Amino acid sequence: MNDVLKATREQSGKTQAQVAREAGVAERVYQSYEYNKIRPRVDVAIRIADALGTTVEALFREEG
Length: 64
Description:
5 helices
């Protein structure tokens, strides 16, 4: 699971559906990002970061 993405979304007070809508993707697709099933394309990652008021780097950095 992408805990950073999920935590950032929850801190923003937005639902998965809201972020998905703002990013221009289906809610199921957005859920796949939170569950680390797939990674978003760069343009989608930018829209997600914008919707959450943060950066792509902060949301999708590699955990190590």
